[in-house]
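Team,

Forwarding the record for the chain on the shared tracking sheet. I've put the sequence and predicted structure together so nobody has to dig through attachments.
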Amino acid sequence: MQPYLIYILLLGAVVFVGALIMPRKPQQAAMPEQAVQNMENALDQFMENMEKEHEELIALIAKSQHEAKVEADHKERRISELERKCEELERKLAEPPAQAAADSVVRQAMPPKLSKEENIAPAIIPAPAPEPAITIQSRYAELFKLYDQGKSIEMISKKLGMNKGEVQLIMQLAKQEAAANA
């Protein structure tokens, strides 16, 4: 065997015997009763705080749910109202052209009243032009004036006290009306 291996074996044996002979540290005694009591009090206080925070969190969630429900109900009512207004506007937009067409049919069906000179050489009398229908742009002139000035839809809705969706709807209906009249 190699001489350095013998030294290593002897050194290892000495360390092992020394470890067995050395006194061990005594194990820690059980925690004192006061420390246990303090720990229990701290845990109880922690649990009470957690319960309070839990109750506050539940109350906050319930309040948020209630507010969301109230807001959703409000929005549903607003949507219903806007849909009703939209239907009313569509009905009003469709009504004047139909009324003007009915008036022109009645005028064409009626024979024109002729004077004595006109009885000799009757001429075609054009039907009077129908009265101009109320347009969306004339009804919401201030809205279109602000829009033409380059104001944003948000600003227009705030200034006129309208909903942004309502302003957008009016703008869209005006475009449709212009396209229909073109």
